[in-house]
Fold this sequence. Notes:
Protein name: Myb/SANT-like domain-containing protein
InterPro entries: Myb/SANT-like_dom
Organism: Gossypium aridum
Domain Myb/SANT-like: 20-115
Pfam families: Myb_DNA-bind_3 (PF12776)
Strand order of the largest sheet: 1-2
Strand content: 15-25%
Amino acid sequence: MSGFSQSSAYSQNSLGTKRKWVPEEDVALVACMVDLYNVETYNADTRFNANYLNELERMLEKVLPHAMLKAKPNLESRIRKLKMEWATVYDLLNGKDNSSFGWDEHRQMVVAKDDS
């Protein structure tokens, strides 16, 4: 997993500083989660156990040493966001009214029919 960008961005809002994830960090996060799942030390049936975030933090520190990602709040909130986004895409593609949506394998994205 070497070759990942070391850049990350922060924005200021009324609640304080909010971290903006870059695509390379998302790729590294998902790759580390897959590795963690395959090791079977930190998963129970279909879910990760309580200690997985700390191990995930250690794994990402090796891949992205300058990203300074912490289990809480960074990893916990990003995983929650990715779950919501995945659920939305899943519902678009597999829901009862999905006739307008499909998956473009080449571009790796959801596409919709133009009804105009």
